[in-house]
Amino acid sequence: MAFGVLEKLAIIYQKSGLSISRFAQIIGKDRRTLTSWIDKSVTKNPQIEVLETISLVFRYPKRIWEQDCDKDEFLSLLKAIPQSEVKIIDKGYEGSLEYILNKESKKRFAIHSRFPSPAYRDRVVTFPYRFGHSQKAAQLRKMRCELMLEHGFESVEWYSIESLLRFAFSPIGNIYTIPQRISVLDLILESLEDNYNKSLYFFDSYSTKIFGVDTTYISINYNDNLVFLKMPIDSMIIEITNKSLVHRIHKHFTSPSHAPKHIPKDYAPQILKLCRDCISNKKDISSFCETIRDKTPYTSLFMSSISTDLRHIFNKK
């Protein structure tokens, strides 16, 4: 059976969820004409202006109307993100800092690639990388710290449990001395204390099929229908302005039925305090696991993030 323009139009109408009247109004036709196209009581295809309007309003590529665009390709294109809604920001390190400050100037909702975020790091340690030592870059980092740590600035931060454990106990690739780790935790706790503008979550990045989401910085601006990802390649940023995708990502981290398994924000400060106490007393990750087992209800979340050699600790009674 041929898969032509009328079949495609009917699928787009059904996918839109709109009434006949509303859809007809959008394309500039009356209800009777639209109905005749949908139920195929006529054989003449809609005018090219109608097809172009549908592509423009619903952000579908014009390719969908071409004769050699078969059903499989058509359905695939309906799900694809229009190229106009994906932008690559490639302005170097200073340019990416300026972009982030601009997009997060009012508030931020971020999933971090590692613990802690640069806002806390830059207050405690000297900038650790070979690049980014210009006066402008240093000033931008200072502005970022001041903004993020401001008491009234609204900030929601997500970190994987694994990244917290690496920061606190890993001897490999760790830029923080023990006193610096304690200072970072104190700084975060001070920022969170009696502050309803700050929210901190630790999530299990292993057991809920989202391993890898914590390897790239993701910033979500729900109100502006914007998500951007900071890629680990020359400070490149990918900006997405597809409303449905932005809302889907936001829902994944805000809806109880969709969010990854995590430690609630009200309990996160206690986890940080337990971690700080272990570091202060020069205890290792085994002791911290025992503390989590004995003093918190989040054994299962931490168990997913540690090696099999340490999991026996959680099974002790």
Describe this structure in words.
With 317 residues, the chain is an alpha+beta fold. The protein is 47% helix and 12% strand. The protein has an 8-stranded mixed β-sheet. α2 packs across α3, α7 packs across α8 and α12 packs antiparallel against α13. The longest helix is centred in the middle third of the chain and has 15 residues. The relative contact order is 0.10. The model has no long low-confidence stretch (mean pLDDT 88).
Using only C-alpha atoms, the radius of gyration works out to: 25 Å
Category from helices, strands and their pairing: alpha+beta
Number of strands: 8
The biggest sheet amounts to: 8 strands, mixed
Mean pLDDT: 88
- What oligomeric state do these chains adopt? single chain
Backbone shape: elongated
At a glance:
This protein is of the alpha+beta class. Helices cover 47% and strands 12% of the residues. The protein has helices at 5-16, 20-27, 31-38, 48-58, 71-79, 92-103, 118-124, 135-149, 161-169, 178-192, 243-252, 268-280, 285-295, 299-303, 312-315; strands at 86-89, 107-111, 154-160, 198-203, 217-221, 226-230, 237-240, 262-263.
Topology:
Elements: H1 5-16, H2 20-27, H3 31-38, H4 48-58, H5 71-79, E1 86-89, H6 92-103, E2 107-111, H7 118-124, H8 135-149, E3 154-160, H9 161-169, H10 178-192, E4 198-203, E5 217-221, E6 226-230, E7 237-240, H11 243-252, E8 262-263, H12 268-280, H13 285-295, H14 299-303, H15 312-315
Parallel strand pairs: 2-3, 3-4
Antiparallel strand pairs: 1-7, 2-5, 4-8, 5-6, 6-7
